[in-house]
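[Meeting: bench + compute handoff]

Bench side (C.D.) handed over the final construct sequence. Compute side (W.E.) agreed to return the predicted structure before the next meeting so the bench team could plan truncations. Sequence as handed over:
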Amino acid sequence: MGITKLLIANRGEIALRIQRAARDLGIKTVQVHSEADTEMLAVKLADEAICIGPAPAAKSYLDIDAILKAARDSGADAIHPGYGFLSENAGFADRVVAAGLIFVGPSGDTIRMMGDKAAARASALAAGVPTVPGSDGIITDMAAAEALAGQIGFPVMIKAAAGGGGRGIRVAETAEEFRTLAPQASAEAKAAFGDGGIYIEKLIARARHVEVQIMGDGQDVVHFFDRECSLQRRRQKVWEEAPSAALDDTTREALCQSAVALAKSVNYRGAGTLEYLYDDATGAFYFIEMNTRIQVEHPVTEMITGHDLLAEMIRVAGGAPLSLRQSDIQRRGHAIEVRLNAEDPANNFMPFPGVVSGLRLPDGPGVRMDHMLYQGYAIPPFYDSLLGKLVVWADTREAALTRLGRALGELQVDGLPTTAPLFSALLGDAELRANHVHTKWLEPWLDSHAHLIAAEKDKAA
């Protein structure tokens, strides 16, 4: 079953990325959008565009009935959810299939199983994949959970079973804190995800965040190697690299094979990412969760492997088997991605929607920019602040860092502050260049290096 017309149920840079992959495959595109996104570049470039509601996401990009009506009205035969919004909503996947359409992603049942962090953890254990010491499933008895936390040893992380993007997470240093924070985490998870289920894990200090990109067709699964996303602010990734420079080849092979084993155990179909914590001190890795969608940071994987992940997931959704065997997928060189947000890093990352009054994009060998910008574009204030991703590739990590500095020097976005000065400041840090980082490294660095970020902002003005 091939796809002939694809509806893109998302916005911004990922909508453009999906649109381009589809059109490269000869597939027509339908871009849905809110009233606030009428001037969005993805709307201008799509074969068709349909407004599905007012600016609030709940009344447009999260309105399943409106999206399905747009699919029926346009004659689309498939829906790509991108990331965020409805991309990991099992009910949406079910509704798409029930409407006789193709959902570009795993089945609703797989999303339920692997999107539920506690259930995914149980699946990992069953597949022999190491997990962080913690609860076996969703916590229902707070007293028993507190006792378990005491056995594991504080500090522990309290996490939302249905969570993602760092939301619904608390760190309890003591039993007293646990009694206070566990109900808070449950309430936040209920408000954000409609599911108040939580589970607990041992906090591994100074851990790195590494992840493995996989692709499955329901029968076979291949991996596209690893990424490292340890530089995070408020548990949001800001800088990603592929591969992780911290892993030796033996550890990398074991990590990737564990991801394939877990994905095969659930007959996975589509693009997915398995996230792990990596302990530099012991060389151990622990599965933490699976994202059943394409990731923001997928371009670094494409840069080191040379494969188009969006095109492959569209082909697989259309009924084709994987076009690649594991032996066809090789990695070469090193790639770095930084997230360009409409935020002022010199002013506590205050969001700053505005009009792009001037634009100069970096170019040249080994430079790629996935973005939603054009001169005169008024960035709506209703959605997340991601404007695009600057991605560089080179033969070595050191050369990629140098190239990133060159590309940042060429980048100019007039009319609003962006996070570019943060990355220019980070490039001058000796610990980052030596790769002596972990998931708790960036936030203290921001506190102690605010003057450098302000200086980079002034230099770019």
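W.E. noted at the follow-up: The longest strand covers residues 221-233. C.D. will use this when planning the next construct.
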